[in-house]
């Protein structure tokens, strides 16, 4: 392996890794949020207005 | 070696390696499909095929991640060298598992009479201009094509035909395939299935591969001390008998300084076969033996014994005040340069 090859490899692979890391992070950020659990579903207007039964 | 092409020679170790490999794949896919079917029982043919797509796709990605960790692990510790021994079979099996995954995708569209949808997605999707929504099947096909190329040229015939330098450069494309397939998963199943373990496993796999390569490179970067332009290796006893100490020249070139009893010689650390780290090998029957595939060279001049023709660059060695030193300027291939001490 010549010095030129080594320099090329030292540049190429970190750049490729950075591109993939950036792509993965962007995909993660833009990922839709998880569905809310069923028991935390928003209450209806009537539920909100009525007091909790004692 | 290079005296002529010979068919793959099977031996007991290769058979055991392949047996464990195939058993591992069968166990992984069997467990994945069983647990998947128990957790969410498929009700029709497309649902079963969907489960098969996930099982084979996950298995192929895990296998690819393991393959890419073997190289740096073997550089960090010789305990992992047995994993390296038959890595090409591992790669070919990975391609076959990925091929079943791709075929299952086609099957999924086929059983629903929706092949036109698949074709449209591949050739005329508006998603090609987007990031989220990019046709992941195109990414998968690109990754699979690279895996096919590497599997098809994995045999020693292609190594001899293409020459080790070109063959090795071609097979570095595995890293490109891995990057493409990470994005295939990140833009595909990671967007559809919102459970947190998917990004953790995907990001964790990618980080593991990257960190192991950084760790292996970091360990090798330290340059040896110099004296009058010669690299200081250490007292002869600091070089293990029938093995080597590897020193790094200021330009990054790695030199393997071997000791065979009272004979000391220095060779390039790069094997002529597949650029394996020859300094991590040992001397067997008087010949320096590469740890990767057993290619052999004479210590005194770096030449493979007849009828083989490979030659390694050698380096001048001297003993100065009881300290072994090596000249970092490589001699022409096959130059006799080893010395005897005591």
**Helix proportion of residues of chain B, in percent?**
40-55%
Biggest pleated sheet of chain A: none
Number of domain modules of chain B: 2
Please tell me how large the radius of gyration of chain A is.
Answer: 26 Å
Cα(first) to Cα(last) distance of chain A is 80 Å
Largest contact between chains? A-B, 20 and 25 residues
- The assigned structural class of chain B equals alpha+beta
CATH first level of the largest domain in chain B: Mainly Alpha
**Morphology call of chain A:** rod-shaped
Biggest sheet of chain B, open or closed, and with what strands and sense? 5 strands, antiparallel
Structural write-up:
- The complex is a heterodimer of chains A (54) and B (342).
- Chain A has helices at residues 3-29, 45-49.
- Chain A has 54 residues and is mostly helical.
- Chain A has a domain at 1-30.
- Chain A is rod-shaped, with a radius of gyration of 26 Å.
- Chain B has 342 residues and is α+β, with helices and mostly antiparallel strands.
- Chain B has 2 domains: 12-220, Four Helix Bundle (Hemerythrin (Met), subunit A); 226-340, Rieske Iron-sulfur Protein (3-layer Sandwich), CATH 2.102.10.
- Helices cover 51% and strands 14% of the residues of chain B.
- Chain B has helices at 12-39, 45-76, 81-84, 87-111, 115-123, 136-152, 156-162, 164-171, 173-187, 189-192, 197-220, and strands at 226-227, 230-234, 243-248, 254-260, 263-268, 282-284, 287-289, 296-298, 314-315, 317-320, 323-326, 339-340.
- In chain B, the strands form 3 sheets. In chain B, strands 3, 4, 5, 9 and 12 form a 5-stranded antiparallel beta sheet that branches. In chain B, strands 1-2-11-10 form a 4-stranded antiparallel beta sheet, with no helix packed on it. Chain B has a 3-stranded antiparallel beta sheet with strand order 6-7-8, with no helix packed on it.
- In chain B, strand 10 and strand 11 form a beta hairpin.
- In chain B, helix 2 (45-76) packs across helix 9.
- Mean pLDDT of chain B is 89; it is low at 1-7.
- Chains A and B meet through helix 1 of A and helix 9 and helix 11 of B.
């Amino acid at each position: 392996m010549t010095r030129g090859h080594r320099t090329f490899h030292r540049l190429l692979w970190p750049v490729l890794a950075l591109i993939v890391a950036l792509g993965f992070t962007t995909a993660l950020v833009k990922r839709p949020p998880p569905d809310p659990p069923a028991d935390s579903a928003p209450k209806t207007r009537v539920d909100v207005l009525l007091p909790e039964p004692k | 070696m290079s005296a002529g092409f010979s068919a793959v020679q099977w031996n007991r170790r290769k058979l055991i390696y392949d047996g464990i490999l195939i058993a591992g794949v069968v166990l992984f896919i069997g467990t994945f499909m069983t647990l998947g079917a128990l957790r969410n029982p498929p009700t029709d043919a497309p649902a079963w095929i969907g489960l098969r797509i996930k099982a084979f796709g996950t298995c192929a990605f895990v296998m690819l991640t393991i393959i890419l960790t073997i190289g740096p692990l073997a550089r960090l510790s010789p305990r992992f060298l047995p994993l390296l021994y038959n890595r090409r079979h591992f790669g070919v099996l990975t391609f076959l598992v990925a091929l079943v995954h791709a075929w299952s995708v086609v099957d999924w569209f086929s059983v629903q009479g929706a092949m036109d949808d698949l074709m449209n997605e591949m050739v005329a999707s508006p998603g090609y201009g987007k990031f989220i929504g990019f046709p992941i099947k195109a990414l998968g096909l690109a990754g699979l094509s690279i895996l096919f190329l590497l599997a098809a040229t994995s045999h020693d015939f292609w190594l001899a035909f293409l020459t080790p330098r070109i063959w090795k450069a071609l097979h570095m494309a595995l890293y490109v395939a891995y990057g493409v397939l990470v994005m295939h998963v990140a833009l595909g199943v990671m967007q559809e299935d919102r459970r947190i373990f998917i990004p953790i496993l995907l990001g964790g796999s990618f980080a593991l591969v990257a960190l192991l390569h950084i760790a292996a490179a970091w360990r090798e970067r330290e340059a040896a001390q110099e004296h009058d332009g010669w690299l200081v290796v250490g007292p002869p006893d600091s070089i293990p008998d029938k093995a080597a100490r590897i020193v790094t020249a200021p330009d990054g070139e790695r030199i393997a300084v071997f000791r065979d009893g009272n004979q000391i010689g220095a060779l390039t650390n790069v094997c002529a076969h597949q650029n394996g780290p020859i300094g991590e090998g040992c001397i067997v029957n008087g010949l320096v033996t590469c740890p990767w595939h057993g290619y052999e060279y004479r210590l005194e001049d770096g030449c493979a014994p007849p009828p083989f023709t490979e030659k390694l660059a050698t380096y001048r060695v001297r003993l100065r005040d009881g300290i072994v030193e090596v000249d970092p300027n490589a001699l022409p291939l096959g130059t006799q340069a080893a010395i005897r001490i005591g």
